[in-house]
Amino acid sequence: MKIKSILLLLLLSLNLSAHTLIMDIIDNEDNTMTVVGAFSTGEKTVGALVKFESLTTGEVLYQKRLPEESELTIEIPKEQYQVVLDGGPGHTVVKKGFAPLEGFTKNTDKTQSSKKLSQNQEGVLVNTSVIVLFSLAFILLALTLYFSAKNTKILTAQLKK
């Protein structure tokens, strides 16, 4: 019985791993694009922030939260930009945006500083691994305490004889 509950606890701790934010950008070929957000678990990203950031100036060109259906149709900017989907701490995706049908009117300056621009967050996998490893360590500690108490009972019973 106790072994079954320990195995169940182990399986539950492995299921605690974080989900990944996914962003799809669809070119509608009419100078608009559709941004769709979701988590890898299938959960919708209602309320996640969609931003268009200029690659020339670093300014935010467009900013809006995803509605109930987790998708937005937006007009494509005339200057080079990147699309940022911010689903909260540790959940940010950045992709380069499509060009409008007539092309960009402003080109990116190669010397332009990108300090203002959002970046993909690559440390999420490490954070998930740390959570799983700490959960596993906790389970192993609990098993150690369980078997130690069991063996202590056996030893005290033998000493009393």
Question: How is this structure best described in words?
Answer:
By secondary structure, the chain is of the alpha+beta class. Helix content is 31%, strand content 27%. It contains two helices and seven strands. A four-stranded antiparallel sheet has the order 4-3-6-7, with no helix packed on it. A three-stranded antiparallel sheet has the order 1-2-5, with no helix packed on it. The longest helix is centred in the C-terminal third of the chain and has 37 residues, at 124-160. The model has no long low-confidence stretch (mean pLDDT 82).
Descriptors for this entry?
31% helix, alpha+beta, 161 residues, 7 strands, 2 helices, 3-stranded antiparallel β-sheet, 4-stranded antiparallel β-sheet
Short description:
By secondary structure, the chain is an alpha+beta fold. It is built from 2 helices and 7 strands, in the order αβββββββα.
Number of strands: 7
Strand % is 25-35%
Structural class: alpha+beta
| Overall 3D form | rod-shaped
Strand numbers in spatial order across the main sheet: 4-3-6-7
Radius of gyration: 25 Å
Helix content: 25-40%
Main β-sheet, in a few words? 4 strands, antiparallel
Report the end-to-end length measured between terminal Cα atoms. 29 Å
Unreliably modeled segments: none
- Mean pLDDT over the full residue set: 82
Number of helices: 2
Order of H and E elements: HEEEEEEEH
